[in-house]
Write a structure and sequence with these properties.
Layout lengths: L12 E2 L33 E5 L16 E4 L7 E4 L10 E7 L7 E7 L10 E5 L6 E6 L8 E6 L9 E6 L2 E10 L9 E9 L6 E6 L10 E4 L13 E5 L5 E11 L5 E11 L22 E10 L3 E2 L2 E2 L4 E5 L7 E9 L2 E9 L11 E4 L1 E8 L5 E9 L6 E9 L6 E9 L16 E5 L2 E9 L12 E2 L3 E2 L4 E3 L6 E2 L3 E9 L1
Parallel strand pairs: 2-31
Antiparallel strand pairs: 1-18, 2-35, 3-4, 4-5, 5-6, 7-8, 8-9, 9-10, 11-12, 12-13, 13-14, 15-16, 16-17, 17-18, 19-20, 21-22, 22-23, 23-24, 25-26, 26-27, 27-28, 29-30, 30-35, 32-33, 33-34
Length: 500
């Protein structure tokens, strides 16, 4: 939702106490290649497409279009759906999604999401395609509800102007995050297994996955699975992130709260990873990864991280960021990212496991004042690591959005997708950029989306950018639909495609 109160809402960690039994000592445990010799030819610079997603017909809009996601259709990568806090241009009862039918080069809006808010469109929303049948699934918080009301949705054709079908409707749920695995062999071949990670505030063990083993059925059955196995101070943190391997192995990461102060918004949390080797189809789902120290389901990768719900980087609030991606070439390999508070800094960490989450490497990357991590791995095992980082100081502070790529977790190439002033525009609601950005891979190609300031200055986009909306690049001015009237800067979603 665009606005949230500290109580029973999101966290994001600060200062951390690492559990050494969860991390491997010494060198990183990578098994995929060594450092390149001097004879190795330099890597080619990846081809980058970056597109401002606001259509030309909406050139006059100046909303805070934050917290974006995208979904690429694996069976037809020309088809891409996107979402953000974007209101319906006609101010109707349905919120829009972004639609591209040419691989992300151009975008239009299609208002098909139930429960629109006239100012923000939908509340929290994530989207994901079936792997084989073109169906688009979504997990949303309805924008027209005074409570955090979850809908799980389905559209068999996301290009048609028809409201998405409501599969689940439940109150007191935060930050739904949808993933889809389509079974490719065996008795259940063709079944869509739909996983919606969420923070269910109706229970103290609030880290939850709503799961259907056949989301494509006429009336799919969803089961609510509590993945928190330990006592909490009243709830877990909002982000619960599932990641499903092509072989059906299901992982998830969540922000497991240990303490929370309602008055200050500060607390401590463990970073917990769970796993299910049968895709959640057994009698006790997501209990295949057991912590040897306390015998409970879920490995506590890091313990007692600190967070503060009242923390800010620039105009962006902080809390409990987590991300996870399983390697499609090997389900034993999984990467995670998480944030914690260390003094005045908001630190972002990247770790890897090569034994299905039982033990973890030393830190592969540690970044100061970076958040909104997103991870994806392509079909050659190359990792993409997306984040947004506040750099500089005073009036010179900037938001930099970067994508780092690595085939071994040791050697990295970095692309700066955007670098914009942190002072313009001003925030109109929380979250300013969003509580997440998004990254995914289809075959070798990485696809992603982030929100940032839309001031049309080419130096803000070092790898190039395409605007659909009217702009004057000479004066650095946004222009209305008449291509003459100036429009003040705002936050827009930016799609990118990077050849892996």
């Amino acid at each position: 939702m665009p606005t949230r109160t500290p109580t029973r809402k999101k966290s994001r960690s600060r200062s951390r106490k690492t559990n050494p039994s969860r991390q491997t000592k010494g060198k990183s445990t990578t098994k995929r290649g060594n450092k390149a010799s001097s004879k190795t030819p330099p890597a080619k610079t990846p081809k980058v497409l970056l597109v401002n997603m606001i259509p030309r017909s909406l050139s006059g809009e100046a909303h805070q279009d934050s917290e974006p996601t995208i979904a690429v259709n694996p069976s037809n990568p020309m088809q891409i759906a996107g979402s953000a806090f974007t209101p319906d241009p006609a101010k109707g009862p349905l919120a829009p999604i972004y639609v591209s039918l040419d691989g992300g080069n151009t975008w239009t809006l299609n208002s098909i999401v139930p429960g629109a808010n006239r100012n923000t469109g939908t509340g929290d929303i994530t989207v994901q395609f079936s792997k084989t049948n073109n169906t688009l699934y979504a997990g949303i918080l309805r924008g027209d509800s005074r409570t955090t009301r979850l809908n799980i949705l389905r559209a068999k054709d996301f290009t048609v102007a028809q409201p998405m079908e409501i599969l689940v409707d439940r109150k007191n749920v935060d930050q739904p995050y949808v993933q889809v695995h389509t079974v490719t062999s065996g008795a259940n071949k063709g079944s869509d297994r739909v996983y919606v990670g969420n923070n269910d505030l109706s229970t103290v063990s609030s880290a939850t996955i709503d799961q259907s083993l056949d989301g494509a059925a006429k009336k799919p059955n969803f089961k609510t699975i509590r993945i928190e196995s330990r006592a909490t101070p009243g709830q877990d943190g909002p982000p619960v992130r599932p990641s499903i391997h092509p072989d059906g192995t299901a992982y998830a990461i969540y922000h497991s709260w240990r303490t929370f102060n309602d008055r200050t918004g500060a607390g401590t949390a463990d970073i917990v990873v769970v796993r299910d080797d049968k895709g959640g189809s057994g009698a006790k789902p997501f209990m295949d990864l057991v912590d040897p120290d306390d015998g409970q389901a879920g490995i506590r990768v890091v313990q007692s991280t600190k967070f503060n719900f009242n923390g800010f980087l620039g105009a962006q609030r902080t809390g409990g960021d987590v991300a996870l991606a399983a390697d499609p070439t090997n389900s034993d390999i999984v990467y995670i990212a998480y944030n914690d508070d260390q003094g005045q800094d908001y630190m972002l960490h990247l770790l890897r496991s090569e034994d299905r989450g039982r033990t973890w490497s030393k830190e592969l990357r540690t970044l100061r004042n970076a958040l909104n991590p997103a991870l994806a791995i392509n079909n050659t095992g190359k990792l993409g690591f997306l984040y947004q980082q506040l750099t500089g100081s005073g009036a010179g502070q900037r938001w930099e959005t970067k994508l780092e790529l690595s085939s071994d977790g040791s050697n990295w190439s970095a692309l700066t997708l955007a670098t914009v002033s942190s002072r313009t525009p001003t925030s109109t609601f929380d979250p300013y950029l969003g509580d997440y950005a998004h990254l995914m891979a289809v075959d070798k190609t990485f696809y992603g989306v982030f929100s940032t300031a839309n001031t049309p200055n080419k130096s803000n986009f070092p790898n190039g950018v395409v605007y659909q909306r009217n702009v004057n690049w000479t004066t650095g001015t946004l222009l209305d639909i008449d291509n003459l009237t100036p429009v003040h800067s705002s936050i827009d979603p930016f799609f990118f495609r990077v050849e892996g």
